[in-house]
Amino acid sequence: MKVAAVRAWARADGRARLYQADSQRLGQIAAASIGVILTSPPYWVSNGGRSTADRYARRLAVGFGREWRRVLAPDGDLWLVLGDRHNGREWVGFDALITAWLRRTGWRLQSKGIWAETRSRERWDNRINYLLRFRKAGRRVRPTAATLCWMLPLPRTHPASTWDATPAPVLRALILQSRRRGPILDPFCGAGTVGRVALGLGRDWIGVERDPRMAELTARRLKMARVRG
User: Fold this and answer.
1) Counting Cβ atoms within 10 Å, is residue 106 exposed (0-12), middle (13-18) or buried (19+)?
2) pLDDT tens per residue, range 105-143
3) Is residue 108 part of a domain?
4) What total of structural domains would you count in the chain?
């Protein structure tokens, strides 16, 4: 099977790189080179039951988690922003499903927070968003007194964006609690909100986005130029 060429962009100051690629394969990123992975994967939006959600959680943990483990530094942090869903019968409890699958593949949950959407556009579906911090097995986080809890409306995203954004105050707080060395990677970067927050905090950033239209949007928003060759 022919593999599509990876398109790349970079900022002139060298602080940010962007790849249009499938983040199940991150061969363009060196092993153990990433300090923090902070991302919000596409939300599970099926009306199926827990078995359907469990298959989705397994795909994230196994299909993508292997590359996350490879590129993340031994003491690096993996933050997942994940929505829960009421399927008409019950809340699915998606945080427990993804935590169980990541645990099976060598990760341990270290911090757990929540962002509850106010003034949601939906009656009850995706108002609860979990903020889950994982480290590789054997690498624990020293506990702090910080409480990771927000009640915030869904922020405005770029008019051309396909995806909703996570509020900037939430992203900023997660970064400030994370490993301070190494770039921040968003393997589902969408319109580049994590990149904007990371760069604003003086952190280097790497984004990966499969959708070519969204990759081009992120490149424009972050003032990145195409890398040739």
Assistant:
1) middle
2) 999 999 999 999 887 665 555 578 999 999 999 988 887
3) yes
4) 1
18-49 burial string, b = 16+ CB within 10 Å, else e? bbbbbbeebeebeeeebbbbbbbbebbeeeee
Element (H, E) at 104: helix 94-104
Q: Which residue has tokens 């989705």?
A: 56
Which residues on adjacent β-strands are paired with residue 80?
A: 39, 132
Quote the tokens at residue 5.
């060429």
Collapsing DSSP to helix, strand or coil, 7 comes out as strand
CB-CB contact of 166 with 193 (8 Å): yes
Work out the burial of residue 138: count CB atoms within 10 Å of its CB; fewer than 13 is exposed, 13-18 middle, 19 or more buried. exposed
Domain-embedded: residue 156: yes
Query: The pTM is what?
Result: 0.92
**For 45, phi and psi rounded to 5 degrees?**
-120, 10
Q: Which tens digit of pLDDT belongs to each residue from 74-89?
A: 999 999 999 888 777 7
In a domain, 2, yes or no: no
All residues at 6 or more sequence positions from 203 whose CB lies less than 8 Å from its CB, including other chains: 36, 175, 183, 184
Residue 157 domain-assigned (yes or no)? yes
Question: Which CATH number goes with the domain that contains 129?
Answer: 3.40.50.150
